[in-house]
Every structure is written in C-alpha cells, then in structure tokens.
Amino acid sequence: MSIRTNKEAAVKVAANLADSGFAADRREQTLGTALTDYWTRVRSGDLGSLPAILGLVALVTLFTVLRPETFLSKGNIANLFVQALPVTILALGLVFVLLLGEIDLSAGVASGVCAAVMAKLIVEAGQPWFVAVAAALVTGLVIGTAIGALVSLVRIPSFVVTLALFLGLQGITLRLIGDGGTVPVRDDVVVALANRNMPIWLGWVLALVCVAGFAAVELLRHQRQRKRGLAGRPFGVTAARITVLAVAVLGGTYLLSLNRAATPSFDLRGVPWGVPLVALLVVVCTFVLGRTVYGRHVYAVGGNAEAARRAGINVTWIRMSVFMIGSFLAALSGIVLASRLNSVTPDLGANTTLLYAVGAAVIGGTSLFGGKGRAHDALLGGLVIATIDNGLGLLGAKAYANMLITGLVLLFAASIDALARRRRAATGR
Amino acid sequence: MAENAHPVLRLTGVNKSFGAVHVLHDVDFAVHAGKVTALVGDNGAGKSTLIKGIAGIHPFDSGRIEFEGREVVVGGPRDAAALGIEVVYQDLALADNLDIVQNMFLGRERTRGVLLDEASMEQSARETLTRLSVRTVKSVRQQVASLSGGQRQTVAIAKAVLWESKLVILDEPTAALGVAQTRQVLDLIRRLADTGHAVVLISHNMNDVFEVADRITALYLGRVAADVARADVTSTEVVELITAGRSGDLGLATAETL
Where do transmembrane segments lie in this chain (chain A) (predicted)? Predict the structure, then answer.
C-alpha cells in the first residue's frame, strides 16, 4: 500500500520534471542567444580561436609600434605569409595527431628527411620535380606508417617513439646531405612554391572562388537546417562568418597584389603560389575532420578511446592513420621550406621547426589533451608564430633571445590550454 | 501473450571458466520481450561474466544460446550487435567531446556519399528521444560533457533504442545517480519494456529492482539460485538469495551451494 502511494507520488514528480526541458528543445537560435551562448562557452573554458586572434592583434600592434617603418611594409607582409606556409602545413598534420592526445616530436625532422630525398633526386639523380616530390611524400608516408605501427600496434607511447625518431631521422638527413653539406634546390616548380607569385588575375579569381564557395556552403546549410527544423546558427552569425572570411581573403589578396618591390622600377606583386596550396590543404582537412565518418571517428577516439572501441570503431587504424597524415603533411612542409630556403641543409626541420608547429596548433586552439581542435587552428596559429618569428627578426633579436621567447610562447599557449581544460571540467563542458 | 511466445533470449546450461576458476555453472537464463528481468547477485556471483558472454566480449565455453527461438553463436561484440543486443555499460561509453546526436550514431553514422548526413541523424535522434518521452535535455546538439549523470544514462539508453535493439542490457544504470535522476532512468527503463524491448537490469538496489522488474534472476557463486516473478517474492527473500543462495523453499539445495 505504502509502496503504491510512493510510486504514485514519484510518477507525479517525474511528470513535473518531464515538463522542464526537452519540450523546449531549442532549434533556432536568435542572435542574442547565440552571443550569450558564445560568451558562456568562452567563460567556461571553450576559447576557440579567441586566443589566436587576440594574440595576432596584440603582436601586430606591438611590432608596428616598435618597427613602424618595416613591419607593415608590403614586402614584409608578403614575407610573413611565406614564412607562415611551412609552419602551417606542419601544424595542420600535428592537429590530427594532437586530436588523439598523441604527439609527434619527429614531425620537424621528418620534413627535413623528405626535403633531402627530394633535393637529392633532383640534383644528383636528375629526376623531374614531380618524381622527386612524389618520392618525398612517399617517404613521409613511410615514416608516418612506422610511427603509427609502433604506437598503435606495439603500443609504445608516441612521445618515446617520436623522440627516438627525432634523433634517428636527423641522422638520416645528415647521411643523405653530408656533414656541413648543402644541396641547392633550383628546380623551377619547387622554387616557385615559396618564391614566385601567381598572376594578379588568378589570385583574384581564386580568392573569389574561395569566398563564393564558403558562402554557398554556409548558406545552403543554413537553409537546410531551417527547412528541416534542425538546430542551427541564426542567420546573423552565418552572415558574419561569411563577411569575416570575405574580408580576410579579399583583403589579403589585395595586399599581396600591390607592388612590393624595394625599387620602383621593379615589379613584384601577386599571391605566392604556396598560399593557395595551404588554403586547399586547410579546406580539405576541415572537410575530412568535420564532414566525414573518418573525421568523426578521429574526434571520438580522441575524446574516449574505449567508447569508440565499443562503438565498433577500429581504434588501431585511426591511431595509425593520424601519424600517417601527420608525416605526409610534414613532407609537404619540408618541400615548401626547401623551396623558401632554395636549399636543403642537414639541419632543415631541426631546431625550432617542430616547436613552432606545435605552438601554432596549440595557439590556434587545438588541445594537447586530445579530442579538441580544428584544421583552421593551424592557419591562425601559424600566422601568430610567423608574426613572432618575423617581428623578432626585424627587431634584430639575438639567437638566444629568439629561443627563449619561442619556448616561453609555447609554454604560455600550453598553459592557456591546460587552464581552459580545467575550467571546462569544472563547468562540465 | 509474451509469456507464450519464445523468449527473446534463452541461455541453457551455460558454463564459463577463466583458467582454473569456474565462474558460471550450468546457468539457465531467459528474457522476454516487454519484460524487465532483473539480474541480481553479490559481487563475484557472475553477473558481469554472464553479460559479457551475451554481449560476445568473453564468449561462453559451453551451453546453448537461443535468440528468438533460433540457436545462435555469439563469438564477438559484432555478432551480438547484429542480433539486436545492446549493452549500456556502467561507465557509459560516451565521448565527452561529441554532442548527443554524434554519440547516438557513433560507429554507425549515416552518410550520403562521403558526407555525413547530419540532418537525418539529428532528426532520428530527436524522434527517438521524443518517443522515450525524454524531456530533460536542452538540445540534441549539446555536448555530452555538459550533461548530468542521469542525462548521460538517458543518452546511452536512447542510443540502444535508436538501433531498434531487441534486447537492452543495463549494467547498474542508477548506481551513480541522485534521487530525481534515478527516477527518470527507472521511468525510462519501464517505457523501454512497454515499447516491446526485452530489458535486463543489473542492480544492487532492491528498491530499483522491485520498482521496475517483472522477473528476478538471482545468481549465487556462478549458479542460478532462483528465477522468480517479482510478485512472488519479497525484498528480504531476494536479499537472502543473493547473500546465502537460498531463502526458505527458494534457492539452491544446501549441498549445491558450495
């Protein structure tokens, strides 16, 4: 009897609870709720691109004040973009690895090995550029497969595997290039990547295609979500996203289309060929991570590997594949770096290369703890890192100061990541 | 009606050993559609081993498994999933960094070409939650990390329902929950059975068991001590079955309790 009345009372309570929430499932947000939500997310530690954007603004202001003549000159802005290319490509590969909470310490020197393979094939074997580039990319895939197999099959921590390769791969580069040697890279196509510019009209066409494509994707999604009653962004936010991208892309194209030659008689203008390459890579990676089953599984393994395993996801394969992607993109980064330097030396990809790339990914918003990160983090972070590198160069900072500052920047970015993560845990996000 | 039909799952004479340790002794176990069967027993009684055998994680050494009247072989988790057996684990296999829809479809994403079909997944997830009268989540696009324990349990159970599972096994679903959340989950379990699913509920909590279970199967040291209708026993008797293997006329004969 008493059990029965208890139960009835309980059912009543349940009914009251039931009226509280899901009936009010919010599908269409207004601009106001979207802004409030964003602010709540930031306060609860989900910072997104905010640190990178604030950092970029602060750095640009700082260096403009310190070097008003040179920092914002047209030549230097173009230089900055080119400097950001290899860092961004390397960081893009690291985003995949970091999404699983793993690390690839050998990514920088792997890019060195791949660049050395390419340079040797062009210079000493006389191979055409496409054979050499393909060989470099395959080398990257082989390195990535080896790391992936050791991490996912043998289950050695990625930190240890890639630390060992960090040393080993430098040995291979040294063996290929020779002690103190330099292999010059003079192949037209490879050199063009970082040193030649697209015709002005092509730059504008690609920029417009880029903006129109983004706008089409965003608007179609918005329309579909509204039509089928799905959760989505308010139109204001979609419009703002398109505007921001359009301003950034078209503004960048405009700056790079101005004549930036030091002497007026000389004509130097146009978007460097490497820029559309990076743009394409970011678009492809965004698509893979955000819109494909593979990308979804990468996030799932990074968030909860056990849950992913029980859901029938091949965790071993996912773990292996991210290292393959990481080293493949490292190879591309090495090729662009060799193009920028016009040569391959035994220390290409060593020193600060990896630190810069990890810093770029983390500053951009990718977490070192796995499960959180996007492709465009590498782009934003790469710009921040290139700005630091470029600005310090203009200030004539000594090598020791450069190392100290770069190290501190990475520590700072990692601290923000760790603190934001604690904040997320505390606020249940 | 359901009593006359084949049980959804019937185990006959199941044995399982881990090395020299004989964990399950000739266990018989049956689960019917539309019924909640509580599986009770002390720690080490063999509940988890029995569940893992059904789920294909540690297949049984011997014995017969019938699913909807047909004899089947469950050699791995995929076999179990293909039959329509879903296990909702105690530690809730959800990825915190994904939202509710993404978690519900994890590992079985719908696609159009190479693209994820987010629209159709979101609609199905919402329909399933609505069908289960789940009204406690704000948005199906909420990250799972921001959900309470009860809501997480709800999502895990809804995931099982989404896949049209015939048999849903819940491992201690209320163990970590507060009073109101336990209430929600128990209601959900009841609705699960009422919508035609066979439900196995593993629980240490006699209140929960007596509130939602139709039948109670008690395990004692790897043997079935009793398989009774809830209405025929009292809470005290069940506790005796769990702790001593017998209670009055019920349970194992004394010689067998070893």
Answer: 47-66, 78-100, 105-123, 129-151, 158-178, 198-217, 238-258, 270-289, 317-341, 353-371, 378-397, 403-420
